Predict the 3D structure of the following.
Amino acid sequence: MDADTEKNAGWRGSRALWLDAARQAFVETGLDAVRIQALAHRLSLSRTSFYWFFKDRAALLDALLEHWEDTNTGALIEACDAYAETLTEGILNLISVFIAEAEFDPRLDFSVRGWAAQSADVTARVASADSRRISAIKALFVRFGFAQEEADVRAHAVYLVQIGYISLQVTEDTATRVERAAEYVRIYTGQAPDERELARFRARHGC
């Protein structure tokens, strides 16, 4: 944090604090809840404090989209790029991101997709993010020897299943999702993960 940010934090809050409040309001209630006065009330701060960190509501909304891209899309790409000895391990890395929900927030993804129905600009950003995500998954398949066309189809299958989970707001406990992972991997890749990979995967999720 730079000196100016530190100076303006505290009783005015901070940029991160206002942004997190906006994210929470957005996923809990919807876009209309992301209003300066409502956020100030939520944070017990003055409305004028907001303007130390954002020019206006439009700037806050743009920051919210950037946060979504950095966290959700970033987490997916990072998982695809992570070290893996086998393709099955690589897909388990990717599935882990969706199960943990610590970095990839499905509620935020769902909310942004709803927002896209109201805005052509957001629609374009969602399409761009989807393209980047699918490209990252495709690159994972290519890395382990799949031809471009087949890698593309498999990447779409992996991604569209997950988007289906998000769009339908499917709720499953962690144990159920972990238990299903091995069969998902086999379907996606044509290969079964070995027991060592599954043991590490289960341990990662406390199962």
